User: Fold this.
Amino acid sequence: MLAKPEIAGIVVAHGTDTLEETAYFLDLTTISTKPVILVGAQRPASDPDSDGPRNLISAIRVAIASEAVGKGAMELPVPWPPGRSLCRRSALAPHQDNQQQEPRQR
Assistant:
């Protein structure tokens, strides 16, 4: 799909339990300069301030941005780090999640 010229990037809606691992895997295995954006939500759709729709819109904006080209697979809502540089700190403390770390070696 990424080989098609009309495709600027891909957005994958993903559960948050393994989103980091999938971003890491895709960053290592995707052979394309086009961005692959993984996006999840911390709050359920039933929450009055659900972050899912907002995160999805942000992911689409990043996927079509020229600045995202060549950055590999990325996880949102964190702004733009490659999947190999993310590390989940705690499933119980979302505010600590996805703090950027030194990139893992390929």
